[in-house]
Design a protein that fits this description.
The protein has 83 residues and is of the alpha+beta class. 27% of the residues lie in helices and 12% in strands. It folds into 2 domains: 31 residues, no CATH class; 52 residues, no CATH class.
Length: 83
């Protein structure tokens, strides 16, 4: 089997693992890792939400608590203060 990007012969070890790109093409175009976070949509159980790395960074920024503050302040206009 040949690599669809560069048409070179795939290494036998990569074929056994079910990979379709040769090592050179895989290193040249890395796939970003999927990140996950626990989301609690209701009281009884959480769920894992899988997302792209940039979405994960934004999610962490919005849901990260600073000290004893509420997370709601992260998404409100002017940090929840009266303007």
């Amino acid at each position: 089997m040949n690599c669809p990007s560069c048409n070179s012969v795939l290494e036998p070890g990569r074929l056994e693992l079910g990979l379709t790109l040769c090592l050179a093409c895989a290193r040249a175009n890395p796939v970003p890792k999927v990140r996950g976070a626990m989301v609690y949509a209701h009281k009884t159980a959480g769920a894992i939400c899988l997302m792209a790395p940039d979405d994960f960074t934004r999610y962490r920024k919005l849901t990260n608590r600073r000290g004893q503050q509420s997370v709601l302040r992260n998404v409100l206009h002017a940090n929840g203060r009266a303007v």
